[in-house]
Design a protein that fits this description.
By secondary structure, this protein is α/β, with parallel strands linked by helices. It is built from 14 helices and 18 strands. Strands 1, 2, 3, 4, 7, 8, 10, 11, 15, 16, 17 and 18 form a twelve-stranded mixed β-sheet that branches. Strand 17 and strand 18 form a beta hairpin. The protein is globular, with a radius of gyration of 22 Å. It starts with a helix and ends in a 5-residue tail after the last helix. One of its GO terms (molecular function) is serine-type carboxypeptidase activity.
């Protein structure tokens, strides 16, 4: 489809929807500019649009933030979160976007937000989507659509992106990057594959894909899971004796330990007990817990890393000091379930009754154990790639990320070195290249899972340098 034709169709669609709005009580949006939000002082100093894009029987909700730099030339970054089932709200508020909660002064009610200056939107347009359907404010009009998987999520996100760009053709001209973090590293990699396959097949309009960005990405089940044991040993969480005993008895495959291999199984179970009270998202931060009965009787303490009960956390906020990372998460439930906030975001009534930051009840099939072969194939396509990890992340450790990158067998062009922000070491980086394909890997020193939540300023500098082809 030509761009001019796309514009005429867009105009016709919007005219049709306006007529529907006039003659129907049910409002439908082409994408609405949000000028203010409850809890934010004054008008938003950036352009935020929200809306829905139809993909088969699903209505995919998005937040779009136009670049605060030069939107006609700055790249477009599609971003969604992992889980699976975690809302792109994470990116908007905690990671990449221009908003943040005022945690320090919270006294109840709708939490206040403020403008965060080191947003990725300073230098790129950001398209956050709640994916897969059932995540955040995305919902299905066909109940069968709620059953999803790794492959279906990838197809759905690709369908969303292509439809959204058809509806907003001016962004077809700018450079496109696909971004995802954590478990979305699986489907996000496949989305990139779909874009290239569509372009190669001549599907129009052609998407101007330049590369992809993955933060602490789930990539290969065996590598990612085994890396937790290597990381725990390197960080001094388990003893040399126990680690080497397990390494020998399990033949370095801790993930595959079963009761059929009693010595290996016993060693792995002992390691699990050694690290069970460590905060897996950031090993140096406290694990937020409170007295709560559990069914198995193993412990009277339940971790908020696995279960979030914001009502419990907010009931007596003075008992949960600011250093409890999950207090920030709890505020999202209050904010996103407030009627005034929903009205400001143009959320359709009676579609999502109870918003969750991460929906753990998705009907989800984990049907892709590894996307390593996808990465190997993509390494022949001349893309620009950024992979990054926090170096205190036990959920998806940097040791595993570094291992699978080495399996791509790329040529090192800039060897391991520190990278700096304001004259201080912000992490370490290494750059690979092969036939026009360039992969930059970076750690964020002191960061957990996901890295930008802990090092937002450093995360912005890393992104800004990469997206404009400067060395990190």
């Amino acid at each position: 489809m030509a761009v001019g034709s796309g514009n005429r169709i867009m105009n016709w669609v919007c005219l049709h929807l306006v007529l529907v709005l006039i003659f129907s009580a049910n409002a439908v949006y082409c994408g609405t500019l949000v000028k203010s939000l409850p809890g934010f002082d004054g008008e938003l100093p950036f352009k935020l649009y929200t809306g829905y894009t139809t993909v088969n029987g699903s209505e995919m909700f998005y937040y779009f933030i136009e670049s605060e730099g030069n939107p006609k030339k700055d790249p477009l970054l599609l971003w969604y979160s992992g889980g699976p089932g975690c809302s792109a709200f994470n990116g908007l508020i905690y990671e990449n976007g221009p908003l943040a909660f005022n945690v320090t002064d919270y006294e109840g009610g709708v939490p206040n937000t403020y403008y965060y200056p080191y947003s990725w939107s300073r230098t790129a347009s950001l398209l956050f989507v709640d994916a897969p359907v059932g995540t955040g404010f995305s919902y299905a009009t066909d109940a069968s659509e709620y059953a999803t998987s790794d492959t279906k999520t990838a197809a759905q996100v690709y369908g969303f992106l292509r439809t959204w760009l058809n509806e907003h053709p001016k962004y077809l001209k700018v450079q496109l990057f696909v971004g995802a973090d954590s478990y979305a590293g699986v489907s996000g990699t496949i989305v990139v594959h779909h874009i290239i396959a569509g372009n190669d097949a001549g599907v129009l309009p052609r998407l101007n894909l330049k590369g992809y960005i993955l933060g602490c990405p789930r990539t290969d089940s065996t590598i990612n899971e085994n890396s937790k044991y290597v990381f725990s040993h390197r960080m001094g969480l388990i003893s040399d004796e126990l680690y080497y005993s397990a390494k020998n008895s399990c033949n370095s495959d801790f993930y595959g330990a079963t009761t059929d291999e009693p010595e290996c199984y016993e060693d792995v179970q002992l390691i699990a007990r050694q690290i069970k009270d460590i905060n897996k998202n950031h090993i140096l931060e406290p694990k937020c817990t409170w007295a709560s009965p559990v069914h198995d009787g193993d412990s009277a303490r339940r971790s908020m890393q696995e279960y979030e009960y914001p009502e419990d956390l907010l009931r007596s906020p003075q008992e949960y000091p600011e250093f409890c990372h999950n207090f920030d998460y709890a505020l999202s439930y209050v904010w996103a379930n407030d009627d005034d906030v929903r009205a400001a975001l143009n959320i359709r009534n009676l579609t999502v009754f109870d918003w969750k930051r991460c929906n753990k009840s998705l009907d989800y099939t984990f049907d892709v154990a590894s996307v390593l072969e996808y990465h190997k194939n993509l390494s022949t396509k001349g893309l620009q790639v950024l992979i990054f990890n926090g170096d205190h992340d036990l959920t998806i450790p940097n040791t595993g990320t570094e291992e699978w990158i080495k399996k791509l067998d790329l040529t090192v062009v800039n060897d391991w070195r520190p990278w700096l922000v304001d004259g201080q070491i912000a992490g370490y980086t290494i750059k690979y290249s092969e036939n026009g394909y360039r992969l930059t890997y970076a750690t964020l020193k002191g960061a957990g899972h996901s890295p930008q939540e802990y090092k937002r300023r450093e995360g912005y500098d890393m992104f800004s340098r990469f997206i404009h082809y400067f060395p990190i």
